Amino acid sequence: MGETIARTMAKWVYSLKFSDIPGEVVEEVKKRIVDTAGVAVGAFNEEPVKISRSIALGTTGSRISSLVWGTLSYASADQAAFTNGCAARYFDFNDTYLSKEALHPSDTIPALVAAAEIVDADGKSLVEGIVAAYEIAARLADSYSVRSRGWDHTVYIGIASAAGAAKILGLDENGIEHAINIATTTGLALRQTRAGELSMWKGCAAAHAARNGLFSALLAWKGMTGPSPVFEGKFGFFKVALCGDKFELAPLGEGGFKVMQTSIKYWPVEYHSMSAVEAALRLREKAGEIKPDDIESVEVETFTVSYKIIVEDPEKWDPKTRETADHSLPYIVAASLLDGRVWLETFKPERFLAEDVRKVMKKTSIRVNPKYDEIYPEGIGNKIRVRLKDGRTLEEESIYPPGHFRNPLDRGGVEAKFNKLLEGLVPEERRREFLGDAWNIENLRRPFEIFRSLSVME
């Protein structure tokens, strides 16, 4: 057997240097740090975040500690990474990468910031770790769809977090490989997280994977070895997780760094519905105010991956939790048409349980258009056609919504989202302080300290 997949990853991660990373890639990393901080601290008062924070703060005093975002308190590094990761993911508002597997690479950032705190790493080291984690997560997603085997995409987040954290911790090739081996062995997660009626765990599963990746790297940092070959072995990933299937790891670094092909969310919805929101809001702008009784029918054309994830389960047509609602294409379209806007309040129970949206959902049909399958994953095609009782038929299509890597947000767009999320939670002066530091992250001696600016007002 030639070089193992884990060794290939470790060699590439170890060899990555800040000087190899182009300026435009560093800029995109900064945007994602800002975006992740905004969505995380914005979720400070949400129930799953409060639950995980209460556990993390019980570990205050640990010698290996990290900041719990939104506070000035510290917790054990793995618990802080979990809590911050839950916050970053809860609103389903952090960035996305689409390929054979769809995932959210910024789920790794809280764990990587924690790793930087542990070893007092500088800004360049943090950027290296983030670029490495994004690369591993995305190339794994390019290689195989684990959801086809009933595993959650967070399997890849755990592996990527281990690799990125090991890079920041300063491990050599062997140490990085052991971190990857431990994380892969221990990190399998069931796709049931995203099937049927979705629970709070939908927003916490990636945080658990990233926490496990960080813990795996910490073990390797202290000398723990991991089972090898973890992908190709007798009871390895290919044999057990993929039922004998194999994949060739997509070449790392080939054609540029993958962070450039990730997309920042413009609305807080499951990413495959992002273009449906844009189409629905354009349509609403054309039609003016729409009431349920004005609508004869709503027809949506989407693509297969979208249909399987956010349409086909019966629960997606009758959402009873926030987590199901933001993964329900029928609901998202109905709310967009009626309200003319989509924001955090769209996913409160009083909205997704309301009679008016339920009435529109009953008039809605959704089918797969093979044309959009051909476009995916480069684009996410959704078309909406509304027939009104006054005789009008209105239609809109979107493929590259705002924030898509082919239609990216500039700094101003990222800052606008950040400020909107944190208004009323963090004073404007401290938000400006954080942004000034974040846009200069590569030059900071202790980059993790910038998150202290985002402590939430009592």
Automatic annotation (TrEMBL):
Domain MmgE/PrpD N-terminal: 8-249
EC number(s) recorded for this UniProt protein: 4.2.1.79
Record's keyword annotation contains Signal: no
Keywords for this protein: Lyase
PANTHER family: 2-METHYLCITRATE DEHYDRATASE, 2-METHYLCITRATE DEHYDRATASE-RELATED
Superkingdom of the source species: Archaea
Keyword Lipoprotein tagged: no
Residue ranges of domain MmgE/PrpD C-terminal in the record: 267-439
Similarity field: Belongs to the PrpD family.
Xref: InterPro entries: MmgE/PrpD_sf, MmgE/PrpD_sf_1, MmgE/PrpD_sf_2, MmgE_PrpD, MmgE_PrpD_C, MmgE_PrpD_N
UniProt protein name: 2-methylcitrate dehydratase
Organism: Aeropyrum camini SY1 = JCM 12091
Any single Pfam family the record assigns to this protein: MmgE_PrpD_N
Molecular function GO terms recorded: 2-methylcitrate dehydratase activity
Signal sequence interval, chain numbering: none
EC category: lyase
